[in-house]
Structures are given as C-alpha cells and as structure tokens.
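Hey all, quick one. A colleague (J.T.) asked me to put the pyridoxal-5'-phosphate job into the tracker so the inputs and the structure tokens live in one place instead of scattered across chat threads. No bug as far as I know, just bookkeeping. Sequence used:
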Amino acid sequence: MAIRTSPRIAGIPHYEPGLTMSEVMASHGLDSVVKLASNESPFPPLPQVKAVIDAGIDGLNRYPDGAARALREALADQHAVDPAQVAIGNGSCELIVHAGVALLDPGTTIIHATPSFAMYPHLAAESGAEGIAIPLAADGGHDLHAMAAAVDERTRLVVICNPNNPTGTYRSADQVEEFLDLVPDDLAVLVDEAYYDFVDLPDRGRVSVLARTRPNLLVTRTFSKAYGLCGLRVGYGIGSADWVRALDAVRQPFNTNELAQAAALESLRHPAAIQKRVDEAISERARVADALAEMGVPFTPSRSNFILMQPPDPGMDARVLHESLLARGVIVRDGSALGAPGTLRVTIGTPSENDVFLAALAAVTGTEREVQHS
Ligand SMILES: Cc1ncc(COP(=O)(O)O)c(C=O)c1O
C-alpha cells in the first residue's frame, strides 16, 4: 500500500544524475573512461587539505560546530562583511533548496531562467509555489529584462545563475545591478555563482560586493568546483543578515559536516594554488573551444568550466553522438537531461582528458584531420 504523501510530491521533477564511471565501463566493456559530465574539478583536494581531512577523522565522534563559526569568520573576512552576512551549507545546493523552503508558499512565484540549473524548478514544485521559467536570451545568458517584467506582488524569489549552467554565459555586475534597480528592494534575489571562479574578466566577484549592502541580494558560491571538494559538500552565501537569518531558520542544526568545514577553511589558505588550477582550466577551455571551432562544431562561448556544444552536422542527433562518445569511453552530459535538447555539455578536464574527448569527437564526427593535440 502506498504511503500518504503530499500531492506536491508528484509534481517534483526527477533529477537525472549523470552516468557513473563504473556504470559506463560495465555497460560498454571498457577498462577506462574519461568523465567530463558533472562539471567537477579533475584535480583532487590540495595536499594540505588532504592532511587536514586525515587529521579530522579522529574527531568524528563529536558533532561539528553547527554554526561553522571558523569558516563563517574566514569568509566574512575575505568578503569584508559581518559573519552574520555569511550562510554555510551542505553544498551551495542546500542553500538554494533552503531559499525555497524559507521564502516560498502556495500562491507565490519564483522566477528563474531556462535552460538553467536543474534544481531551480524543484523549489517551486516542493513548496507549491508557481515557477516562472524565462527563456534565455539568444547569447545563452539570462534575459534580465524579461525576468524583471515577470515580477509581480506574488513574487518571492528570483534566481540568476551566473555564469549560467548549462550555457556558460556570463552577465556583468552592471547588468545584475540594473536588474536589482528594476525590482522591489524587498524582493529576494539569489545569484548562484557556482562557476564564478572561472570568469576570466575584471568583473569577476563584483556581484558579491553588491551583496555587502543590497538588502535583498544573496550570492551563493561553492567549494565543489575550483576547490575540488564536491564529494565533501560545502558551499556558502554572502548577503544581507536578513537573508542569512531566513536560511539559518530552516537548516538542520549540524548541516555542514566537520571535515567539509575544515577542508574549506584550509582551502581558503591556499589561494595561489587554487588559482593555478583555475588558470589551467581557463586555458584548456580556450584550447577545447579552438579545437571545436576548427572541427566546425557549434558551441556557446563559455566563462565556466564546461562548454555547451551541438553536433557539427545538423542532421546528427545529439543523443546518438552522446552514445557514440560513451562507446569510446568519454562521458559527457546529454543536453536533453539539462533542458537543452540537441546539445551536449562537456566539462573541461585535464589536458590529457580533453585530448581523449577531442580525439573521440573527431573520430565519431569524421573531423579527425583538424584536431590539434596539446
Ligand atoms: C549552477 C549550479 N549551482 C549550484 C550547484 C551545486 O553545487 P554544490 O551543491 O556542489 O555546491 C551546481 C552544481 O553543479 C550548479 O551547476
């Protein structure tokens, strides 16, 4: 007999996780695969961070600091804000989900872009609010004017994904500020900067400066991407004390585990080593983009650690291309699982992983001759 559940459950979109490496190896009889599907870092945590994680294991009989004070304070220092303006979560995803729990009710609306990060539609479905999904502009970035125009007195939350997943398109801090000026000061706006580290523009980081003083703005960031800690789950938000109080009100008391807090704190002590990895991802992104252009593969220019591409031949089905790459041991993300049918999203890996991807792509699309190896 089925258990009694909320009628809302039926409307929650099913999140389709990417294939695991062992699933692909088993189903295709392969000894090795390259995984470029989940926008992870190809690098393990820094050695100093690994040492802190190892040392922390002995203390796991104790609950973590529920307020994550040391990490909050370090991030508050870094962003020149009060610790009361910092939220810590079990991944930035948890903070995004908490924003929905804290702010949305039936009869209210949440506005986000489409295609964008798959979690945003969950917030509406879980709370019973109405989700308003605004199509991206032609360049793959948010149509901020259309989003502002969709705001009415029912709107409780607007989410801006910047750079946007899955397109990688970036909106400048001036554009975000112009949007903030168009909407009421008491309307909560969350700017999801999960990929901010990979924005190679002087503008990088300026939205978080706005979050120091704007009463309605929260910027979320993560240690999952550039810092290589997605398996530990830790993210943070910078915003008004009001925003942080709302998020803290709905979280469980010990939401961010001890090792995640310690690893994030240690990672913050090594900005140059992290930046070196980010620089490598940015230069590899340029190399992969050049190779795609040479092969005649259409793609969206990206400020992130992934590139959204289409098959070079419009007659080629992206799902077939996805399967052909899998058969050669290269896992990329099928755009149809991301709300972007007809596309594939490839994460930037190490130079040798990117070479494997480019060689497989050239082989399956018949564009071998043009590929430049690193
Ligand atoms: C746009 C965006 N936001 C948030 C996240 C969640 O990151 P995490 O929960 O690992 O911090 C992701 C993960 O891929 C993402 O793509």
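Adding what we noticed when we looked at it: The first strand starts at residue 34 and ends at 35. Residues 39, 91-93, 117, 161, 165, 192, 194, 222, 224, 230, 235 surround pyridoxal-5'-phosphate (CB under 6 Å).
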